[in-house]
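Structure tokens please, single chain.
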Amino acid sequence: MAEAGDAHAPAQDTDEHAARAALRRAKRVIIKIGSKSLSGDAWDRLAHEVLALRSGAHGGGRRGSSAGRSVILVTSGAIALGVTKLGFKSRPKDMARLQAAAAAGQSVLMQRYEEAFGKVGLVVAQVLLTHADLADRTRTNNAREALAALLDAGAVPIINENDAVATEEIRFGDNDQLSAMVAPLVDADLLVLLSDVEGLLDVSGHRVPFVRSVAREARHLAGQSTSGVGTGGMASKVEAARRATLAGAHVVIAAARDPEVVARVIAGEDVGTLFAAVPQRIGARKHWIAYTLRPRGALLVDRGAVEAITASNRSILAVGVLGVRGTFVPGDAVAILDPDGAEIARGLARFSASDAARIARKKRPDIDDDILVHRDDLVVLPSE
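Here you go.
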């Protein structure tokens, strides 16, 4: 909230003031660092930044004091290091060589973290995840408990995609998105995306200091990566910011080359681009349905169903379904489309695609259960 004398401050200024104050109170912080930022003494600098966070050296001011914070790292770099280790001239295009590079580079990556963090007395723990791990609810809960146990033991989890075995992750995933998926998993207050850029830039090339709504203010500014090292670009970072803010975390995109960038972020300084957490976060399970699971098909619903879903939080009934797309089974994620084909929600199907198609548009006494997606398994997506 605004300080005395700021009662007539613009809403944007008030929101930014509150968001920066929240950064100083953050207790669980995720730091994601990209491949291009991991060179030279990057590991040593990162170790000192994490040590300062853990010891409470970064508080209300640049060198204030507060209770220590929990820190989770999401790291890229395995493939880039593996390319060098195996003597490849450039990042491979074929899947087998990408996997080989990931396997060779992961041990080097963890060795560098072990050495750098060991120098400052911190214990690190490797956590390799695939999308399949996070798409399965039981395995997601196991991962949550394992991460909590590591944090309770005083370790710093180092999370990376298991690119050596997860072919789909190399082709479609990146660690920006993984960090956003980890945010609700650990109840993060803050996600810091460290990159080789200073933040999101506007159409004039100037840094955007604060974003209140990703959909309204930032998506059109995000470009695509032209880097030959990493897979993520600004578009990926902005999408990760959108997903993490919906989980209740503030997000900052900032330049990794700044040796005190994390300290400056935690102090609430105007560094990088700050994306404000939404006022009402999506719960962890519904965030998982909407932003971790990949839809296997879709239900096309009529205008009445759209109104019932978006305005009244109602379940999707067979009578309101115009058509079915794709192939899915009970429990699979499905996209919910309005009559124009725009996605308005995601949910878990209670029927297979064939059974859903059979009872669509019908309301008859012989249908025992005409709920195709229950409201407890349904997430209305934020309006663009």
